[in-house]
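Hello Y.,

Per our agreement to keep a running log of every chain we model this quarter, I'm adding this entry. I've kept the format consistent with earlier entries: sequence first, then predicted structure.
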Amino acid sequence: GTFFRSSEPGAPSFIEVGQPVRRSQVLCIIEAMKLMNEITSEYEGELVKCYVENGQPVQYGERLFAIKAK
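Predicted structure for the entry above:
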């Protein structure tokens, strides 16, 4: 699929490095076979790294974010 950090071009990212993360918060969208899939956080904490650039192709199981859990 394709990784997107925001809901549409020009819109702010769902989350930036250094911001707090809530459980079930939308972090990004993965477009696969014309379907837009929201990817949510399983953890609460702080976003410390984003491993993927906006618009980059990704594969199942690929690491997208690093979250420092509380």
